[in-house]
Amino acid sequence: MVIIHLSSTLGGGGAEQMVLQLAKQSNANIKTIVISLSDTNIGLESRFQDHNIEYHLLGVNSFRNSTLISGLKKLKKIIDAEDEVVLHSHMYHGFLLGLIYKLCYKNIPIVFTLHSSAIENFGRKLMLHLTKPFRKQDIVFSNNAKMWYLKKNSEVIPNGVNFDELAPAKKRVFNSNDVFIFLYLGRLNTEKNPLQMVSAAQQLLKHNINNFVINFVGGGIMHDELVDSIESNNLSKHFNILGFQNDIKPFLAEAHCLVLPSLWEGMPVVLIEAAAAKLPIVSTPVGSIPDFLNDSNAYVTELDTFHKSMIDVYEDYDLALQKSAKLYTEIESQFKIENVFAKHLSVYQKSLKTN
Prior knowledge:
Blueprint: E1 2-7, H1 14-27, E2 31-36, H2 45-50, E3 54-57, H3 66-80, E4 85-90, H4 91-104, E5 110-113, H5 122-130, E6 137-140, E7 154-156, H6 163-166, E8 180-185, H7 196-206, E9 212-217, H8 223-232, E10 239-241, H9 249-254, E11 257-260, H10 269-276, E12 281-283, E13 299-300, H11 306-315, H12 317-335, H13 337-353
Parallel strand pairs: 1-2, 1-4, 2-3, 4-5, 5-6, 6-7, 8-9, 8-11, 9-10, 11-12, 12-13
């Protein structure tokens, strides 16, 4: 068997991080190839190189110009050189190109992960619904993620991370004389709602909390808008805009709390990474998040009370640490990458047998 992961990009988002984790698990024993449609958003390229994972960039920047044809030809050349291929398509455009290949060239089994519980475009929802017969299996993160366009042949498999790699080297503490570090880890785009942190910082200051900083690790289209908002509100000393980082472990280690003010999500890898690092979490209840986060193991809150939860973590950090320890215990086995990959492998093997 050859596993081919077809992803929209090799950027630093949760979907791409999951592709990397799955490829790392399989690469030692099963030939694994990672293919990115885009050749521009490739922030994780060096990570694939470090782990000797074969990868290719197709250079498809639009489904409406010649790059689609050239990319499709490159994809055909890669797949034609292999036998017993399972194609795991990630995100909508990854599936779309895989479907075109399947219809035009060779009937290979397609496994699909959307990596989000929300699609705003109804046309895309309809496309995924109508093309269900062409997919052997849809992987969703929880039962609540089984939307009408993903209900047939859905297998519930959560995202996963390497818990050993992310284990904290020392116990987390916070003293009133310290600077409290909130960590925003993810893309700067509409979905992730980074501007919420500007409003939250203003609310913390109104409550006489001054010794805090919010570290932003990640890049995206809202970078300039975020910086302008921070500067126009005279909040620069409370923010560090650090851009995309290949290694997030130091930022998880030094932070006191992870914040995720997303408007919509699938199952964010960053939350599992924070849980593995025993880092307290404040998050909105979107996507599959409420299926494993609750008020006993994290701070799950709507946007209008998001800042209040941040204040709660700051004012009673011992309780926050108790919650993070409980979350770690509850999810370690389920979200451990070794166990998550074993479930994926079973899906791949079944897909080949029934193709």
